[in-house]
Specification:
- This protein is α+β, with helices and mostly antiparallel strands.
- Helix content is 54%, strand content 10%.
- Helix 7 packs across helix 10, helix 9 packs antiparallel against helix 10 and helix 13 runs parallel beside helix 15.
């Protein structure tokens, strides 16, 4: 693929858009970002807050620890730390520089400040609306479709920003050019200086939190459990490091990650196994960076049809992406990668997303294993064929089918999951 090809520049831009640093689970961080922005517009720390969010936001914030809060969980904690200590200019790193004094202030603020949480009546799967009050003054901030997409800002009755929300990809580079064949072509020919900074930051951040997850005591310690007595088995090591990073991230670790398609767990899953394999097998930095182009873009390709949030576990797509990246770094090209994607999708499609929490690490381990199995199947001359369940003839047809399954077929499942979680 030549630099003059329109897809080349789009692929570079997609990587820059999707592979962004974030502190903590991205849905509570988006709430903190909205709250920090609302406080900034109001001009003072609010005396009370109204937080209205879509069901999927409730699902993904309910059980996860919010960093820099002293171990607090849930929507009120995310809104409080954003309102008290958030830096809205930092976007998804909005609470990355919170001090010990501000952690104490956040706890005190929660104890004395009314924070009302409502499930918003909205057609959007991703919707965060925060109204902040101080006496007779108020401010309003709304985020729709993806984590930093502020579409409305008001101060009292004055509208400061009002833009339509047309589609989930509104404001992002068009993803229609993404195909597995073009992704492989791009990875083989990209000038690495165009993507080096983005990918090397992913390597640095995501491996740091993986190593911390294996050192510390986080959640259910899935990473440590996977690795136990398997320290020299590279397949277990890839799964363990990815799971350990999620162990840490879901349970309050105050290290940033580089996300993919709006999710830190997806960013971890699509990158860490490929990095571990490259290091264990002494691959060059160039080989690793090109493989990460494949893994990240395949994950983004799968998630484009599914959407940012759904009842379909995002780790599945990222595990498929990791399998594709591993196929590339082993010397495979389009045929091998396409078969790996189809095989892996056939194994794990249907794992539900029941929110961000400790068990995400276990789903990551299972999804990476599916990616490894899909690759091993191809290496041993085996594959799933069109007509095997949801598998269609051709990798792009299979990817499109998965998108329809997750976005439309599991719509009612998503509602039922949210209701069950709210009944707890």
């Amino acid at each position: 693929m030549k630099k003059t090809d329109s897809c080349y520049q789009k692929f570079v831009q997609i990587l820059k858009e999707e592979l962004r640093p974030a502190m903590g689970c991205t849905e509570p961080i988006a709430i903190a970002y909205a709250a920090a922005k609302a406080r900034s517009v109001l001009g003072v720390i609010p005396e009370r807050l109204l937080v209205e969010v879509s069901g999927n936001i409730i699902k993904n914030v309910k059980s996860v620890v919010v960093p820099h809060t002293g171990g607090l969980r849930g929507i009120p904690a995310a809104a409080a730390v954003g309102a008290v200590a958030g830096d809205p200019a930092a976007e998804l790193e909005v609470i990355s520089n919170v001090t010990a004094e501000q952690i104490t202030a956040t706890s005190e603020y929660l104890s004395r400040t009314p924070i009302e949480v409502r499930c918003a009546d909205t057609p959007h799967i991703f919707d965060i609306q925060i109204t902040a009050y101080s006496g007779e003054e108020s401010s309003f901030v709304r985020i729709v479709d993806y984590h930093t997409n502020i579409i409305c800002i008001r101060r009292n009755r004055e509208t400061l920003l009002d833009k339509p929300s047309v589609t989930q990809s509104d404001g992002l580079t068009d993803r229609c050019c993404l195909t597995v064949e073009k992704i492989v072509d791009f990875a083989q020919t990209v000038d690495l200086d165009d993507v080096r900074e983005t990918l090397e930051r992913q390597i640095s951040y995501n491996m740091a939190i993986a190593e911390e997850g294996l050192r510390g005591d986080y959640g259910a310690n899935i990473g440590k459990t996977v690795l136990l007595h398997r320290e020299n088995d590279i397949n277990y090591k890839m799964r363990a490091y990815a799971a350990a990073a999620s162990d840490a991230r879901m349970n309050g670790c105050e290290l940033p990650v580089v996300i993919n398609s709006g999710s830190g767990n997806q960013g971890i899953t699509t990158s860490v196994p490929v990095i571990v394999y490259a290091r264990e097998t002494c691959k060059t930095q160039e080989e690793l960076l090109r493989a990460l182009c494949v893994s990240n873009l395949v994950t983004t390709h799968l998630k484009t049809g599914i959407g940012r949030l759904s009842a379909y576990c995002g780790a599945v797509s990222a595990g498929v992406g990791a399998g594709a990246g591993l196929a590339y770094i082993k010397g495979g090209r389009y045929e091998m990668i396409a078969h790996t994607v189809v095989n892996a999708v056939a194994v794990t499609s249907g794992i539900i997303c029941d929110g961000a929490k400790a068990s995400c690490a276990a789903k990551i381990a299972a999804s990476v294993d599916a990616g490894l199995l899909g690759l091993a199947m191809y290496e041993n001359g085996n594959q799933f064929f069109g007509g095997d369940g949801i598998v269609k003839k051709g990798v792009e047809n299979t990817i499109a089918t998965v998108g329809k399954l997750a976005r439309y077929g599991m719509e009612q499942t998503d509602k039922e999951i949210i209701q069950l979680m709210m009944d707890n």
